[in-house]
Amino acid sequence: MLDKFRAICTLRPELAQVGPIIDQARDSFHQECAQHGLTAAGKYLRVSDLARELGLDDEYRAMGSFLSKLIHPTGLSICHPSSADFSNQYLLSVAAWYFNDSYERLNEILKNLKLPPLE
To answer: Which of 49, 46, 30, 48 is nearest to 38 (CA)?
Structure first.
């Protein structure tokens, strides 16, 4: 993903100043991977693999598919065409709660790893 962001910076002159920051983030990511015997090679990290490594298999299976529908606007609009519909608001509330909870847990993990928290 960092490579994709970097490519955008080369195409859009107004984003050129962000390029070095992305390069630094990519270098840091590669160093972290090397320190832990991992590789950054490949197109993407599989979320299911990360969930398994963190002992969150059950949670991922329960929430991953549900949350992916909320991320994809077409899927959400097909399933819930009216934003005034009660079930739509309820589902979005569940997703917002889950995101907030996950955000807090991720910050705890970052703190335990002595990494800066998300802001």
So the answer is: 30
Report DSSP letters for the chain, one per residue.
Answer: -HHHHHHHHHH-GGGGGGHHHHHHHHHHHHHHHHHTT----SS---HHHHHHHTT-HHHHHHHHHHHHHHHSHHHHHHH---TT-HHHHHHHHHHHHHHHHHHHHHHHHHHHTT-PPP-
Distances (CA, A) of 118 to 29, 60, 106: 16, 21, 8
Provide the pLDDT for residue 85. Answer: 58
CA distances 37 to 13, 30, 34, 106, Å, are: 37, 10, 5, 22
Tell me the per-residue pLDDT of 17-36, one tens digit each, with 9 for 90 and over: 888 888 888 888 888 878 87
